[in-house]
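I am writing to request your help with a piece of structural work I have in hand. I set the record out below, with my sincere thanks for your time.
___
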Amino acid sequence: MNSQFKRGIIELCVLKELIPEDMYGYSIIKALSEHLNVNENTIYPIMRRLTKEGYFTTYLKESSSGAPRKYYHISKKGFEYYLSLRDEWDQFIGGVYVILNKGGKKNEEVLERFRGRVEKE
């Protein structure tokens, strides 16, 4: 998958994770990695950039095990940015589904149409 495209999608997912509650970096990575192939080398640069751009604020919170943890809190600007990205995503993915589902959703249907086309050649 194109790395720029993947980063954009992961950015949207990071923003979404922080809407219901503040989280620290590792907890964000853990939540996302349940569904996506991500690691700290992907997430932390995104978090730093989004913080620098004012989409998050950060604060330290004492941990019961070890050093204080840096928590991320989505700002109003960050929430508005999330809504904007989400609208773009919904429009994009909706168009992709229309294209991919033309003539049938199942791979078997697509394969059968392809076979019929190839046999004519």
About this structure: The longest helix spans residues 76-100.
